[in-house]
Amino acid sequence: MFSTAFLDIPALQSAHGEVQLPGSKSISNRVLLLAALSSGTTTIHDLLDSDDTQVMLRALEQLGCAVVRSTDPAHLNSYHITGIAGQLAPALAARSTALFLGNAGTAMRPLTAALALLGGHFEMSGVPRMHERPIGDLVDALRQLGCKIDYLGNEGFPPLRIQPVAAAQLQLNAPITVRGDVSSQFLTALLMALPLVAKQQDVVIEVAGELISKPYIHITLELLKRFGIDIHNEQWQRFTVRAGSRYQSPHEIHVEADASSASYFIALGAIAASKGSKPNAQGGTTSVDRVVKVMGVGAQSIQGDIRFVEAARAMGAAITSGPNWLEIRRGTWPLQAIDMDCNHIPDAAMTLAAMALYANGTTTLRNIASWRVKETDRLAAMAIELRKLGAVVEEGADYLTITPPANREAWKPASIHTYDDHRVAMCFSLAAFNPAGLPVRIEDPKCVAKTFPGYFEAMFSAVRAVPGSVPVICIDGPTASGKGTVAAAVAEHLGYHLLDSGALYRITGLAATRAGIPIDAEHASQIAALIAQMDIQFGADQQVRLDGEDISLAIRSEEAGMNASLVSALPAVRQALVQAQHDFRQLPGLVADGRDMGTVIFPLAPLKVYLTASAAKRAERRHKQLIEKGIPATIADLRADLEARDSRDMNRATAPLHAAQDAFLLDNSEMGVDNAVAQVLSWWEKRQPFGKAQA
Ligand SMILES: O=C(O)C1=C[C@@H](OP(=O)(O)O)[C@@H](O)[C@H](O)C1
Ligand SMILES: C=C(OP(=O)(O)O)C(=O)O
């Protein structure tokens, strides 16, 4: 997951590949609650691992359920949940339990209903936004039954206090009325909880007002059925929970992949999986069929958002499907503008707003007033952010019209504010296919953790950037100038990959020594041949593995440094390492640290920094590093060594160490790491178009 302050997505060109999507949030949290209310153990496979399910899992543990995650590396998302058989343990019922439910509507609403009927003392709270999301209609319905629920903050909103009511005092005879026009989750909550008390008699729920987001009620009814509860549904207006209802664990259940999450990849295919061509060996071109394949959800899904497929087709996507997969290609291009009632797909409809950026006219999305009470006011948020890109947007009380930027020049570089709303972040990643070739900045990308923590990684695995658009920041400089530390910090700040090219030379030196090959010009081609066989991995905290073995310490010795300098003077070795270094340039970007990153390896890099410090300072720093690692050294020796090394690095025939002409010079002798990092980041920021566009 990208936990950076922002994520800059370079201009993208095409999409192609297979993506396995994580589990459905709506199914995961329903199945968890139903397993918790059942007796015995339910094994849930492919559960979504995200913020929304984490808060549910934690709540279930607090309610006395045993929650055991599989330790099998192939099935880490399988969980064994042992339920409470519809009853709280007496000790738990006697004390007050505080449950924190983040911003998960699918946890807050259903748990409120279940706990109000289970008979205990609870306080339910969430993030500040959750305290602005309505729950009054559900509380009103539960109060009709005699449940005791108080608002601890604003009337109609969490946080809530729940107090026990004796089962005998519940009024189950008259139908309960619940409003259905603000959120379907209130009805879902009642449907899932009422079997707890529908023992001697039927319990009837009547829906007042138009029921929105109906397909989510379908998910609820389907899953209740799998837990042995059959509810009589009369025209989506009246639901009867039958007397004698009892949750029965199916023992084992699989969670489908999330259909709402699929919408971003369906859009990706519709926008960018077009036939292309690539150069072939004969000097001509071969055509390539690009397709995005989504695994884990398909035509047989019980999720309403699978109907996003119809909407995407209406806009021009070419989609084929199997029971649990979808294959998407670009069909009509540009996409067709549509005018659609989106009440049945409230979440996925946001993706249509992003697709509308690529349509041939004005798209209208109707009947989406519920957007206003979700993770943020989504109608307002989408309008503001789409306008930043250059679209013309009309925001109505319950609709949105989107007219894309009139032409290439009308697209604007934008820093997208994401309002702690996962869907805003995911939707706007699609703007990186803009015809102007502009990058897109997504602020607070970690907000995708609500339902899809690995979203950006999954997206990057299925897209190709416009050639040359993946940025590289080069940080070159002499030994012990601090470039490794600065480069790692810059990479971490931006969420970019890191290439420690010096380590590549150290690794090569080590591999040659271990293979008994002398490091000299005579053996250069032998060493170069070795490189092709090396399996190198850079991990966090400067960890380096060679063929699986952790060699982080071995390559940091002074001897390894000397060997690195020797191998790096061999042209054949440098040549063999060029491709290896270019391969590190991957989405979303690269910070490359070394001695010839800006001069030789990435001469067109958009930012080059030459980092230096005085020989005295560098010797001091290196001394400190070695002593901390328990490696003995003296400052005088180290200084002599590094001056010798400077002169060898600067005077070698191939790629001698010097600052690229267009590099910024940064002498950090009297500067802390934080300031050096801040300086590099500020140079980088000045190269970005975002600030200027919004100033
Ligand atoms: O029941 C569910 O799982 C959901 C219902 C929908 O909410 P509303 O019924 O409030 O529209 C949807 O937006 C939400 O993401 C999940
Ligand atoms: C509205 C959403 O979430 P919640 O389940 O919290 O209502 C959503 O995921 O888009």
TrEMBL record:
<dbReference type="InterPro" id="IPR013792">
    <property type="entry name" value="RNA3'P_cycl/enolpyr_Trfase_a/b"/>
</dbReference>
<dbReference type="InterPro" id="IPR027417">
    <property type="entry name" value="P-loop_NTPase"/>
</dbReference>
<dbReference type="InterPro" id="IPR023193">
    <property type="entry name" value="EPSP_synthase_CS"/>
</dbReference>
<keyword id="KW-0067">ATP-binding</keyword>
<dbReference type="GO" id="GO:0036431">
    <property type="term" value="F:dCMP kinase activity"/>
</dbReference>
<dbReference type="Pfam" id="PF02224">
    <property type="entry name" value="Cytidylate_kin"/>
</dbReference>
<comment type="pathway">
    <text>Metabolic intermediate biosynthesis; chorismate biosynthesis; chorismate from D-erythrose 4-phosphate and phosphoenolpyruvate: step 6/7.</text>
</comment>
<feature type="binding site">
    <location>
        <position position="25"/>
    </location>
    <ligand>
        <name>3-phosphoshikimate</name>
    </ligand>
</feature>
<feature type="binding site">
    <location>
        <position position="183"/>
    </location>
    <ligand>
        <name>3-phosphoshikimate</name>
    </ligand>
</feature>
<keyword id="KW-0057">Aromatic amino acid biosynthesis</keyword>
<dbReference type="InterPro" id="IPR006264">
    <property type="entry name" value="EPSP_synthase"/>
</dbReference>
<protein>
    <recommendedName>
        <fullName>Multifunctional fusion protein</fullName>
        <ecNumber>2.5.1.19</ecNumber>
        <ecNumber>2.7.4.25</ecNumber>
    </recommendedName>
</protein>
<comment type="subunit">
    <text>Monomer.</text>
</comment>
<keyword id="KW-0808">Transferase</keyword>
<comment type="function">
    <text>Catalyzes the transfer of the enolpyruvyl moiety of phosphoenolpyruvate (PEP) to the 5-hydroxyl of shikimate-3-phosphate (S3P) to produce enolpyruvyl shikimate-3-phosphate and inorganic phosphate.</text>
</comment>
<feature type="binding site">
    <location>
        <position position="185"/>
    </location>
    <ligand>
        <name>3-phosphoshikimate</name>
    </ligand>
</feature>
<feature type="binding site">
    <location>
        <position position="30"/>
    </location>
    <ligand>
        <name>3-phosphoshikimate</name>
    </ligand>
</feature>
<feature type="binding site">
    <location>
        <position position="450"/>
    </location>
    <ligand>
        <name>phosphoenolpyruvate</name>
    </ligand>
</feature>
<dbReference type="Pfam" id="PF00275">
    <property type="entry name" value="EPSP_synthase"/>
</dbReference>
<feature type="binding site">
    <location>
        <position position="347"/>
    </location>
    <ligand>
        <name>3-phosphoshikimate</name>
    </ligand>
</feature>
<feature type="binding site">
    <location>
        <position position="25"/>
    </location>
    <ligand>
        <name>phosphoenolpyruvate</name>
    </ligand>
</feature>
<dbReference type="GO" id="GO:0008652">
    <property type="term" value="P:amino acid biosynthetic process"/>
</dbReference>
<feature type="binding site">
    <location>
        <position position="105"/>
    </location>
    <ligand>
        <name>phosphoenolpyruvate</name>
    </ligand>
</feature>
<keyword id="KW-0028">Amino-acid biosynthesis</keyword>
<feature type="active site" description="Proton acceptor">
    <location>
        <position position="347"/>
    </location>
</feature>
<dbReference type="GO" id="GO:0009423">
    <property type="term" value="P:chorismate biosynthetic process"/>
</dbReference>
<dbReference type="GO" id="GO:0005737">
    <property type="term" value="C:cytoplasm"/>
</dbReference>
<feature type="domain" description="Enolpyruvate transferase">
    <location>
        <begin position="15"/>
        <end position="459"/>
    </location>
</feature>
<feature type="binding site">
    <location>
        <position position="26"/>
    </location>
    <ligand>
        <name>3-phosphoshikimate</name>
    </ligand>
</feature>
<dbReference type="InterPro" id="IPR003136">
    <property type="entry name" value="Cytidylate_kin"/>
</dbReference>
<feature type="binding site">
    <location>
        <position position="423"/>
    </location>
    <ligand>
        <name>phosphoenolpyruvate</name>
    </ligand>
</feature>
<feature type="binding site">
    <location>
        <position position="185"/>
    </location>
    <ligand>
        <name>phosphoenolpyruvate</name>
    </ligand>
</feature>
<feature type="binding site">
    <location>
        <position position="374"/>
    </location>
    <ligand>
        <name>3-phosphoshikimate</name>
    </ligand>
</feature>
<keyword id="KW-0547">Nucleotide-binding</keyword>
<comment type="similarity">
    <text>Belongs to the EPSP synthase family.</text>
</comment>
<feature type="binding site">
    <location>
        <position position="184"/>
    </location>
    <ligand>
        <name>3-phosphoshikimate</name>
    </ligand>
</feature>
<dbReference type="GO" id="GO:0006220">
    <property type="term" value="P:pyrimidine nucleotide metabolic process"/>
</dbReference>
<feature type="binding site">
    <location>
        <begin position="477"/>
        <end position="485"/>
    </location>
    <ligand>
        <name>ATP</name>
    </ligand>
</feature>
<dbReference type="InterPro" id="IPR001986">
    <property type="entry name" value="Enolpyruvate_Tfrase_dom"/>
</dbReference>
<dbReference type="GO" id="GO:0009073">
    <property type="term" value="P:aromatic amino acid family biosynthetic process"/>
</dbReference>
<dbReference type="GO" id="GO:0003866">
    <property type="term" value="F:3-phosphoshikimate 1-carboxyvinyltransferase activity"/>
</dbReference>
<feature type="binding site">
    <location>
        <position position="378"/>
    </location>
    <ligand>
        <name>phosphoenolpyruvate</name>
    </ligand>
</feature>
